[in-house]
Write a structure and sequence with these properties.
Elements lengths: L17 E3 L1 H6 L5 E6 L9 H14 L8 E6 L2 H13 L2 E6 L5 H9 L3 E4 L6 H7 L4 H13 L5 E3 L7 H17 L6 E5 L4 H13 L4 E7 L40 E5 L1 H15 L5 H14 L8 E6 L19 H15 L1
Parallel strand pairs: 2-10, 3-4, 3-6, 4-5, 7-8, 7-10, 8-9
Antiparallel strand pairs: 1-2
Helix pairs in contact: 2-3, 2-7, 3-4, 7-8, 9-10, 9-11
Length: 349
């Protein structure tokens, strides 16, 4: 008998399962085959474990970081959790700049790995800049890299938005895993866009194998994006708008040549789908995964897609959202749609 014992958490990342969502499809009368790539089976329960490892190891190979250095990133949570865990396993310090509105579980998880958490509101001059940019995550990252860390010695900002190690790991792992485990049989691939790395890398690999594959990108709807009238809407965590945006607001890692269509999803729709998945399949996922599920349901309803196989990438688990309203089944998901509408009308008044 050959022992199979891993030596590091880094060896446990990837090879997440595919799950046929039979009950969800049945209850929603979906006439396509709906398959989920469950990234919650990564050690820290999200797809971001993949890029965390990839970016750190690329920096090591390139001689950019040395033992004792501090790694830095700005994130809505999952990348920070993955980086904190892997930095701990490799002996690096880690600091994360994070939005004040992320769930308390995310902050606690990062701190549990010994990392430093710096809320946006505590950074001098940052809130004014962030508000003026209508919550532009790309601009926020650039500002932080230039203003906060540039003068610090032994600090390396990983810059997930334009770090090529981000999409590269999905070309190397996520795409091949889906192709292998689906037996090379899929018609449509759907993923949400945050940094753009997951969609771009996975979609690129799958299209190389199957040029006729349709790749669909998911972004937040207008009602779920910060604006002058609605600066603090209930957003879909980690999902950012990229269509009809100026070039400087679009992550460099988003490859526009990969996707064929963009579907906008509102937060209340993402909440509704995530809740329904928990009730029908016993699987807890985050709101970005709910957004992908909602989009898949719309795509599957098209007559031309009946009988096709749709693979959706569900980016993270739902356990870090329990302090939010995501799984508050007693509160109808449509309530959040109404709340945003009221907030907008109040701003106008």
């Amino acid at each position: 008998m050959v022992a199979k014992i891993s030596s590091s958490i880094t060896e446990l990342i990837g090879n997440t399962p595919l799950l046929r969502l039979s009950r969800y499809a049945q209850q929603h009368e979906i006439q396509a085959e709906l398959i989920a790539k469950l990234e919650l089976f990564n050690p820290n329960h999200s797809v971001k474990d993949r890029i965390a490892l990839s970016m750190i190891e690329a920096a090591e190979r390139n001689g950019i970081i040395q033992p004792g250095d501090t790694l830095v990133e700005t994130t809505s949570g999952n990348t920070g959790i993955g980086l904190a865990a892997i930095a701990a396993a490799k002996g690096y310090k880690f600091r994360v700049y994070i939005n004040d509105f992320v769930s308390i579980e995310r902050t606690q998880l990062i701190q549990a790995f010994g990392a430093q958490v710096v809320p946006f509101s505590t950074i001098e001059g940052f809130k004014e800049f962030y508000d003026a940019s209508n919550g532009d995550f790309v601009a926020a990252t650039k500002w932080l890299a230039e203003q906060v860390t540039a003068a610090e010695p032994d600090v390396h900002f990983l810059l997930q938005l334009d770090n090529p190690a981000n999409p590269a790991v999905h070309v190397q792992t996520t795409g091949p895993e889906i192709w292998r485990d689906s037996g090379g049989e899929l018609d449509i691939f759907i993923a949400a866009v945050g940094t753009g790395g997951t969609l771009s890398g996975t979609g690129r690999y799958l299209k190389q194998q199957h040029p006729g594959l349709q790749v669909i990108a998911v972004e937040p709807g207008v009602g779920s994006q910060p604006s002058e009238l609605r600066p603090e809407p209930l957003e879909i965590t980690g999902v950012h708008a990229f269509s009809n945006q100026p070039p400087e607001r679009i992550p460099a890692n988003l490859d526009h040549r990969v996707y064929d269509e963009v579907i906008a999803v509102e937060t209340w729709q993402a909440y509704a789908a995530a809740r329904q998945l928990a009730l029908s399949e016993g699987v807890l996922v985050g709101d970005s995964s709910g957004a992908v599920l909602w989009a898949a349901e719309q795509v599957a309803a098209r007559p031309e897609n009946h009988g096709k196989r749709i693979v959706v990438l569900l980016a993270d688990g739902g356990s870090s959202y329990l302090s939010t309203q995501l799984f508050a089944h007693q509160v109808p998901a449509e309530t959040f749609k109404l709340a945003n509408a009221i907030q907008t009308s109040q701003k106008i008044a």
